[in-house]
From TrEMBL:
Protein name, per record: Aldo/keto reductase
Domain NADP-dependent oxidoreductase: 57-308
InterPro entries membership: NAD(P)_OxRdtase_dom_sf, NADP_OxRdtase_dom, TAT_signal
Origin superkingdom: Bacteria
Length: 351
């Protein structure tokens, strides 16, 4: 699993940098010839500390891929199929995401893409005592079993939990060949300083951070530090967990969106994120196959330049509620009924 170029349908980017714009997926790789135009130009980015070149839109799975056992999941299989057919390759998950790992592993195996997709996973473990690595080792073992993977492409310390122990442990896993890349994550603004400090140490391959047209604080320190130290940037919550779409519900796109090829609000918001040249991949999540199609369309065609990005922000600032979007609940109007929701309901009932 060490050679992404041979097995994952992406391209060898000799001399390419994280500032790459739009390049062609290699025509020689047999799995590039997917339905849905996977041989068209894709916006891709190179992991600075490796040779891997990734399409700029990935697939998140928090809440969306969590279902109770026995529930219908045809729609999620179709989301995965369309994602792959459109040229998407990076799928992000975690043991904390309920049944997401199991579903991704089964869907990828059924579609014949398990050994080709780029899996981003996480570890959230403390151990029974300081420096006890047994829970983390168990987490890695279970993730490999659920995902049906011999090796995890990217392993991240989830939300900086036990980070002083987990990052050195992940370096050991990388040396042992059990993972290929490592990094840290967070999504809450109060932890951005700590996240930046870890990036500035320079021994991470990837940082995953909350970044969107509404939440731009990562631009202040984290993203510049990542660019300076050759750390890839993966973006969680690029659509603010459906809150951006709720904010613009019923509104037409501004006319200037045509200038960079955005035909939907999804493309508008996602193109803003990936037009930051230091961003490697954005990870929107959805349960709706049609919404998936809108999301992946953002990684084709033109991107807004710096002046246009400012114009996009200025436009959003005219919409009531934009400035306070971060104070509103996640997933407005949506109801996800997975094992996470079951557990949360059970805890509330005991209160």
């Amino acid at each position: 699993m060490s050679n992404l170029i041979d097995r994952r349908t992406l391209i060898q980017a000799t001399g390419a940098s994280v500032f790459a714009g739009s390049v062609k997926v290699a025509q020689a790789a047999p799995t590039t010839r997917q339905s849905g135009g996977a041989t068209d130009d894709l916006i891709v980015r190179k992991i600075p500390k490796g040779e891997d070149v990734l399409p700029a839109i990935g697939l998140g799975t928090f809440i969306t891929f969590d279902l109770v056992p026995g529930a219908r999941r045809d729609h999620l299989l179709e989301v995965t199929r369309r994602f792959w057919a459109a040229g998407g390759r990076v799928i992000d998950t975690s043991p904390l995401y309920g049944m997401a790992e199991v579903n991704i592993g089964q869907f990828a195996t059924a579609l014949g893409i398990n050994d080709k997709m780029f899996v981003s996973n996480k570890v959230w473990a403390t151990g029974e005592y300081l420096a006890d690595d047994r829970q983390a080792e168990d987490s890695l073992r279970l993730s490999r079993e659920r995902l049906w993977r011999d090796k995890i492409d990217l392993m991240l310390c989830h939300s900086l939990v036990n980070v002083d122990i987990i990052v050195p442990l992940m370096h050991a896993w990388k040396k042992e060949g059990r993972i290929r890349f490592l990094g840290v994550t967070h999504y809450e603004l109060p932890y951005f300083e700590a996240l930046a400090q870890w990036v500035e140490k320079g021994n991470l391959d990837v940082v995953q951070v909350h970044y969107s047209i509404a939440t731009r604080q990562a631009e202040e320190r984290i993203i510049p530090a990542a660019a300076d130290r050759g750390t890839a940037v993966a973006v969680n919550m690029p659509l603010e967990k459906a809150r951006l779409h709720k904010l613009v519900e019923g509104r037409p796109l501004p006319d200037f969106a045509k200038e960079f090829g955005a035909e939907t609000w999804s493309a508008f918001f996602l193109k803003w994120v990936i037009s930051n040249p230091a961003v490697t991949v954005a990870l929107p999540a959805t349960t709706n196959p049609d919404h998936l199609t809108e999301n992946v369309a953002a990684m084709r065609g033109r991107l807004p330049d710096a002046a246009m990005r400012k114009r996009m922000v200025s436009y959003m600032e005219t919409i009531p509620g934009f400035a306070t979007l971060g104070n509103t609940p996640w997933y407005p109007g949506k109801n996800y009924l997975g094992v996470i929701a079951q557990g949360q309901a059970a805890i509330r009932s005991r209160g």
